[in-house]
From TrEMBL:
Keywords: FAD, Flavoprotein, NAD, Nucleotide-binding, Oxidoreductase, Pyruvate
Annotated residues for binding of NAD(+): G180, S181, G182, Y183, V184, G185, L186, E187, G270
Active site as annotated: H444 (proton acceptor)
UniProt-listed Gene3D superfamilies: 3.30.390.30, FAD/NAD(P)-binding domain
GO molecular function: flavin adenine dinucleotide binding; NAD(P)H dehydrogenase (quinone) activity
Record domain FAD/NAD(P)-binding: where: 5-322
Domain Pyridine nucleotide-disulphide oxidoreductase dimerisation stretches: 346-453
Cystine pairs: C41-C46
Homology family: Belongs to the class-I pyridine nucleotide-disulfide oxidoreductase family.
Chain sites annotated for binding FAD: K50, D311
Cofactor: FAD
Organism: Chitinophaga filiformis (Myxococcus filiformis)
Protein name: Pyruvate/2-oxoglutarate dehydrogenase complex, dihydrolipoamide dehydrogenase (E3) component
Length: 460
């Protein structure tokens, strides 16, 4: 058995930097990866999806070029080349992360699947067919999540797609059906619609994007429908069946029965943690009812010395949160600081077009928390930069504490919505008031300049 000071299980956006920093701090460290370095973000999530979404944006501009006074007589979507470009970007990111770890002294990379076999000991089934036993006083779990597959009759008999396998297609679907209207479903739905596919999105909830305010969700739905995507809400899929090369769904939505036939089916119905396969009970590690690993505000589990970071611990499932998790752990263990995950800002962005950038409290969350709020809204049709570029879908919304004149949260549904949101996040962290933002000088004519106009709406 090899003994280390630290073992990191999983090489996602939290695991890789943590392993490197622990090794550089003098800890003999091992990182165990069962597949590829980089985790979901590089291999299956952020990097590949945003690379493909860029191709969808190019197709959209070409298809609608006459709006900008340009006529394109004909164009062709080559999905095989789009996927090849995506794979090239992914490969470069993956190789960069791998080389960075290989150069780190004191860091051992073990390719294989780890399971607990005792108190802080692990058995690793190596990719080359061997087996290795390892142990450490400090273990960090960064194993992430996998797609959830709902128990719909017949679903297991059809060739459905997940967020990973849909990016391996080299031939465009004629009709893509999507189960779920979260970020994965909406981003892929709009992407494949822009590439020329018929797209139908089916969701069990009455409101898509359940965590957002209703006005934001309604505006996002309008964006999708304007893109040509068919939306079914309050839908219950009763049966899935293969009919030749096609897939047929039977469902009820808003009291009506529907039968939908498509060429491909994407299951985007949430995520499930990769935790039970670790055999956590053998080291006394507790899981919650959904299989996530509960942690305290320092990211330590119920077993002292074992930590969980990233999506596997539950909570906000974003790459940047996983990265911040590693900073919390590193600062507390190496620099003996007292950093907590409590009350940290949770910014995020959905990469539909237009983007939805969000940080802080929604209006309904702020009211539920007892704040006296005022709300500023500005339609993108009143934003100079949006008018000039021809991108006027969406609106800006800010939730303000009436007692302090400070921001509680913002939602920016618009072009570069994530960038504008980030500017307002900095304002929130800096404690700027709405009056200061209303009077601040921004370069003209940026999207960020509309921050002035957003808060001028309160004067009315």
């Amino acid at each position: 058995m090899r003994k280390f000071d630290a073992i990191v299980i999983g090489s996602g956006q939290g695991g890789v930097p943590l392993a490197k920093k622990l090794a550089k701090a003098g800890w003999q460290t091992a990182i165990v990866e069962k597949r590829w370095i980089g985790g979901t973000c590089i291999n299956d999530g952020c990097t590949p999806t945003k690379s493909m979404i860029a191709s969808g944006a190019a197709a959209h501009i070409i298809a609608n070029s006459q709006e900008w006074g340009i006529t394109v007589s004909d164009y062709k979507v080559d999905l095989e080349k789009i996927v090849a470009r995506k794979n090239k970007v992914v490969q470069s990111f993956r190789e960069g992360a791998t080389k960075g770890m290989e150069k780190t002294q004191g860091l051992s990379i073990i390719y294989g699947e780890a399971v607990f076999n005792g108190d802080k000991t692990l058995s690793v089934k190596l990719q080359d067919g061997g087996q290795e036993e390892i142990a450490a006083e400090h273990i960090f779990i960064n194993t992430g999540t996998l797609p959830s597959i709902p128990p719909i009759p017949g679903l297991d008999t059809v060739n459905y797609l997940t967020n990973t396998t849909i990016m391996e297609l080299t031939k465009l679907p004629t009709h893509l059906m999507v189960l779920g209207s979260g970020y994965v479903g909406l981003e892929f739905g709009q992407l494949f619609r822009r590439l020329g596919c018929q797209v139908t999105i089916i969701d069990k909830n009455k409101q898509l994007l359940q965590h957002e305010d209703e006005d934001v969700a309604v505006a996002v739905k309008k964006v999708m429908e304007t893109s040509g995507v068919t939306m079914f809400s309050s839908a219950n899929v009763q049966k899935v069946e293969q009919t030749g090369e096609a897939i047929r769904l039977q469902l009820t939505a808003n009291g009506e029965t529907h039968a939908i036939t498509g060429s491909h089916l994407l299951v985007a119905a949430g995520r499930t943690p990769q935790s039970k396969s670790l055999q956590p009970e053998k080291t006394g590690l507790a899981l919650d009812e959904k299989g996530y690993i509960p942690v305290n505000d320092k990211l330590e589990t119920n077993v002292p010395g074992i930590y969980a970071l990233g999506d596997v611990k539950g909570g906000p499932a974003f790459t940047h949160i996983s990265y911040n998790d590693h900073l919390v752990i590193y600062k507390n263990l190496i620099h003996m600081e007292n950093v907590s995950i409590k009350d940290r800002p949770i910014p995020y962005c959905m990469f539909t077009d237009p983007q939805l950038g969000r940080v802080g409290l929604t209006e309904k969350e702020a009211k539920a928390a007892g704040y006296k709020v005022k709300v500023a809204c500005l339609d993108m049709t009143r934003v100079a930069r949006a008018i000039e570029t021809g991108n006027t879908q969406g609106f800006m919304k800010a939730v303000i504490d009436s007692n302090t004149d400070k921001l509680l949260g913002v939602a920016i549904l618009g072009p570069e919505g994530g960038e504008v949101m980030s500017a307002l996040q900095l304002a929130m962290l800096g404690g700027l008031t709405v009056t200061q933002l209303k009077e601040m000088i921004f370069a003209h004519p940026l999207y960020a300049e509309s921050i002035n106009n957003l808060f001028m709406t309160l004067d009315k």
